[in-house]
Amino acid sequence: KNGLLLPTRALADGIAGEWETQPEEIDPHSMRLTRLANSAIDRVTEHREAVIGEVAGFADTDLVCYRAAEPEALAEKQAAGWDPLVSWAAEQHGIELLTTTGLLPVAQSEASAKAVQAAIRAFDVFSLAGLHLVTSACGSVVLGLAVADERIDGPTAWELSLIDETFQIEEWGEDPEATKRRAGLLEDITAAAEYLRLCRAAP
Asked: Can you give the pLDDT at residue 203?
């Protein structure tokens, strides 16, 4: 029963547009901007520290830090897609992440952990809800921050988060369940990227 008070007119217009295009029977699943705003109001406002902790926790096992040693073609795809963003995170946010080709988790430095926390704390409750969704969908706080800062767009984040899986699909083919799951991830990440953009529009 909280009021739907939004940080920008752009986000309000986007949510209004979702409601205007609803059929006679409302489909909440299709209203992704509305759902993210509701999450910000009902969950993030009350549990901000917990949400910050959840997002920051992805740095411990960030997707972009774990590389394949072989096959060489996959390792090259990972390096081409992820290395520029690892460098960007270091330059933009002071997040110096170590990468590995091993199976065991790599211990990131305390300085990097603090830099991750500082970057996340700069988000208000509304944008934090969007960052949380992108980060969890991608398995990477680096990709989440890159989307939030408009360094990359939603579809690009989706592609980069699925480099390993896409490589396997190109080798062996894709089953219908995987196709459906990938499509759902694309919709979620793209919607969250648009939501973040609207959150940061002029009031």
From this structure: 74
